[in-house]
Amino acid sequence: MSATFDFSGRTVVVVGGTSGINLGIADAFARSGANVAVASRSPEKVDKAVDQLKAHGTTVLGAAFDVRDIDGVKTGLQTFHETLGAFDVVVSGAAGNFPAYAKDMSSNAFRSVVEIDLLGSFHVAREAYPHLKKPGASYIHISAPQAFLASQLQSHVSAAKAGVDMLTRSLALEWGGDGIRVNSIVPGPIAGTEGMARLAPTPALKDAVTNSVPLKRDGSPDDIANAAMMLASNAAGYINGTVLPVDGGWHLAGYSAMMMSLADAFAALQKST
Asked: 94 with 66: CB under 8 angstroms?
């Protein structure tokens, strides 16, 4: 269930906002009265997301661009600004991932994740900055537990997301004087998302993931959206440079234990094939 926030007349940009957690965030802001712009690489996903968000009765824009292409990011964000005005909130959530041992991963495979997760985050931040409301804007990265919890099969994501969290802290220092707050959300296992399907592709693994969370339940997109709206609201007006786990306590123990089990399952699968 969504908490109650009022973002009527505010402008919210969600990069990566056409599926999964990020679409849930965009939908929650639209329900709260915000004018919303979403972007991702897929024109089809953009069109579908825009149609969904328009049902809430606010202004909705969409653009297709790849966060690795800084010129595409610049053009897309400029278009949003020309129509919607200064950005009150930007959520930067584009990401890529796949399980692989470092010894088996090609340089291109490692680079692709770093370029999407880390370089893409920098591109969005750099090109969003001129359009952010000063003072008053809230900038939010969507990170991952791999940023601070080491795990097998995730060296590429761990390196990239650790960089995103330090980018968050650095921007909080650099942009604080402009009255812009920069924070990061670390989601736990979220039901119904592509990430959850990748993490737990079988019913048995899904149950194991759920049981590894101290609250004994999966999160929902609304759980992450509520955190994003809280961080973007005046209630969080003195929160800056924070990396906030929203995971039912998963980072305390469950994540590391679960990833070790998944690594064992992955190794067994490789041997069987």
From this structure: no
Q: Which residues contact 171 (CB under 8 A, 6 or more apart)?
A: 125, 139, 182
Domain spans in the chain, listed from the N-terminal domain onward = 11-272
**Distance spanning both ends of the chain, measured CA to CA:** 43
Neighbours of 116 (CB within 10 A): 20
**What architecture (CATH level 2) is domain 11-272?**
3-Layer(aba) Sandwich (3.40)
Residue 94 · residue 67 · CB < 8 Å: yes
Alpha-helical regions (H) of the chain: 20-31, 43-54, 70-84, 107-114, 120-128, 155-175, 194-199, 203-211, 221-232, 254-272
Percent of the chain with pLDDT over 70: 97
Write out the two tokens for 98. 């796949």
d(CA 203, CA 15): 31
Q: How far apart are CA 44 and CA 28, in angstroms?
A: 21
Tell me the whole-structure pTM to 2 decimals: 0.94
Name the pLDDT band for 248 (thresholds 50, 70, 90).
very high
Tokens 């707050």 locate to 181
Phi then psi for residue 14, to 5 deg, are -120, 110
Q: Which of 138, 141, 145 is nearest to 121 (CA)?
A: 141
If one compares 3 and 23, the residue with the highest pLDDT of the two is: 23
CA geometry: angle at 25 spanning 21 and 229, to 5°?
Answer: 130
How high does pLDDT run on average in the chain? 94
For the ranges 9-23, 68-82, 193-207, 228-242, the lowest mean pLDDT is seen at: 193-207
* Alpha-carbon gap, residue 262 to 273, rounded angstroms: 17
